[in-house]
Amino acid sequence: MATERRDRDPDGRSNEVRSDGDRYEAHLERSRRVWDRWSDRYKMSERDFEPIRMAAIDRLALEPGDRVLEIGCGPGVNFERVRSEVGDEGEVIAVDYSPEMVEKARERIGHYDWENVEVRCADAATVAFDEPFDAALATLSMSVMPDAERTAANVYRSLAPGSRFLAFDIGPFQTGPARLANPLVRRFLRWYANWNPDDDVVDSLSTVFDDCAVVERYAAGAGYTVLCEKEPLSTTASRRRDRTSNTSESRSDE
Ligand SMILES: C[S@@+](CC[C@H](N)C(=O)[O-])C[C@H]1O[C@@H](n2cnc3c(N)ncnc32)[C@H](O)[C@@H]1O
Known about the structure:
Distance between the termini: 54 Å
Number of helices: 9
CATH topology: Rossmann fold
Strand content: 15-25%
Largest sheet: 7 strands, mixed
CATH class: Alpha Beta
Order of helices and strands: EEHHHEHEHEEHEHHEEH
Number of domains: 1
Number of strands: 9
CATH superfamily: Vaccinia Virus protein VP39
Strand order of the largest sheet: 5-4-3-6-7-9-8
Structural class: alpha/beta
Shape: globular
Bound molecules: S-adenosylmethionine
CATH architecture: 3-Layer(aba) Sandwich
């Protein structure tokens, strides 16, 4: 059932009563404007978060041949690392809602001549794929999407059983005196990133995925890495075992 609420656009454009559907569309539209604007000035964010992104991606335990989904890829800051792990036989399919970010990501792909990396301009909550993925990731992106649970559900649908989803994100401080700064932090994140104050990324992922745990926290909990699994086969080794036996089956069929 559609509900209505009094909502304030962080640009101060409107504060009329809106339905959830209108709020969703308004958030998406503002995301496009905000991230189109930042697409030319993303270098600092790319550099500063690099060590955390790389440590987070380690946890996906990617393997050569994996087919990987990235949502909210921005200008493609994770492509080089992910591609180096999945190799030429793997595949990286990325999604971003901002046409300017997609353009930057495609320039990166063209620059390195990566044939197995592709970017689509789409909403991560609704985009559909023909084949399942072996792994998925979202760095600094779920918290700026209009509906974290709907997005998580779409990622879940897109994954093969036994696959992992990794999200690294930021939000208000969780512990200590730094929490006093949270009202300002929230305002800043909404203005700068179109951060979504209504959704809790970790709660949303826990609702959707069969297994979900915060595996790392940074800066009084303002940064966190969550690792989720769809229908866990008892360990990642099972996924590997499955793939190995499929490969040997197809070999014995030859
Ligand atoms: C902070 S940037 C993160 C970029 C990159 N993943 C990183 O780690 O730096 C957030 C990205 O999420 C994208 N985004 C926001 N809402 C989206 C949505 N509904 N679907 C797909 N991408 C979205 C934005 O366009 C933006 O490029």
